[in-house]
Amino acid sequence: METSKEFLFGEEIQWEVVGEGVKRKILAFDSRVMLVNVYFETGAIGALHEHYHTQVTYVAKGKFDVTINGVTKLLKEGDSFYIPPHAIHGVLCVEEGMLTDVFSPMREDFMKY
Length: 113
Fold this sequence. Notes:
InterPro entries: Bacilysin_H2HPP_isomerase (IPR052535), Cupin_2 (IPR013096), KdgF (IPR025499), RmlC-like_jellyroll (IPR014710), RmlC_Cupin_sf (IPR011051). Residues 39-95 form the Cupin type-2 domain. This is Cupin domain-containing protein. The protein has 113 residues and is an all-beta fold. It contains no helices and eight strands. The N and C termini lie close together (11 Å).
């Protein structure tokens, strides 16, 4: 299984456009864990979805309406949330921002081979 380098520099990692007003940078990872930054323009949507991975997310910047299993809360910079495996979840960016996601195990579907 591929792993990331031990030292990573943000300016050297390319953004990947993943939706309208949404782009991500895959940062450090191995088969057990993955760190990802996701940038959202105001009004951009992370559509409702589910996956078998455990996810924890830190709101690095901005404001987001976060929905997990039908419950929606407004989270802002400095807040965080936990998504258990198979929970239906999504976000609406209320104010331009960035989410920092940690997945376990890594999201193989994010990788370009």
